[in-house]
Amino acid sequence: MNSNFNKPKGFGEILDQTFKISKYKFKDFFIILLLLVGPIYILQAIIELAAGKSFFRQEGGGGAWYEEMMRNMEFTEEASLSSNLAADMGIVLVSLLVLFTYPVAQAAILFGVNHIKHNQEFTVSSIIKQAFGRFFPLIGSTLLYVIIAISIIFGFILIGVLIPIIFFAIDVIAGVIVSIVLTISLFLIGVFLLTRWSFFFGSVVLDKNSPGLTRSWRLSKGRTFKLIGLYIIFFLITTSIGVAIELSFSAFLGNSVLLGLIVSFTTLFTTLIMAVGYAVIYLDLKLRHDADDLRDLIDDYHIS
Question: What is the rounded distance in angstroms from the CA atom of residue 259 to the CA atom of residue 54?
Fold first, then answer.
């Protein structure tokens, strides 16, 4: 399998490689996510149970099956407001732990895919240990990227609201045109920037380059639209799986704790695919970039 890593891959080859590795090492990678992220979902379920939420299903009020299904998909408000508020706060606080455990899990999977590339054996414990070895650079760089992303989003929203208001005050038609053009433009610019910087993570993990934003910018040069396309495909695949499972089980389980657990552990599966896909893309970018650097060195040698 590692021979496939030794040459630059096209769009379809990256997808194919991702699903092959996901299948080949599914057990190991899923155990990593279970160990690092799974306990958070269990804690969330315990908090919901303590707040009085039904484990198997929320009781409905009878009626036709489709009416019952619609009721089951709605949130119930039988618990007291104070109890719900406390439960929601507890779930939010527990969910924040994902900010610390998920990067480690993704780093461990990235190390695992890198070992596969070099035809090296590994164990779950060994790559988790490697990931924790990069814990502080990972968390620091991830928080920096999140802050940049939030700043871009809110900044662009502010620009997208204020500038059209000025044009609406002058002319309604001009305001509509400016709103449409500006919204599309800002969205594309935001996606472009966040994609170009999104490979900071691989740089921090494998190249030990923190915060890795400059390295990511160089690696993604000239391949941004292909990368955006890959992100969209992975998003559509994983979202479709998650939505299909949630809708299927919500018809029978309603807004129950069990449904939440099923959806959460489905998220682990889709997260595995995304993490492996990211690793394959990053290693492909790294291979292309290193090959370009080598080519430049050869050209400089011939010129001299």
Answer: 10
Cis peptide before 39, with omega less than 30 degrees from 0? no
Distance CA 152, CA 280 (A): 27
- Check: CB of residue 280 under 8 Å from CB of residue 18: yes
Greatest alpha-carbon pair distance for the chain in Å reads 85
- DSSP codes, 57-103: --------HHHHHHHHTSPP--S-HHHHHHHHHHHHHHHTTHHHHHH
pTM recorded for the entire structure: 0.82
b/e for 217-246, b at 16 or more Cβ within 10 A? eebbeebeeebbebbeebeebbeeeeeebb
CB 145 within 8 A of CB 197: yes
Q: What is the pLDDT of residues 272-292, one digit of tens each?
A: 999 999 999 999 998 888 764
**Cα(53)–Cα(45) distance, integer angstroms:** 9
Q: Which of 270, 261, 283 is nearest to 30 (CA)?
A: 270
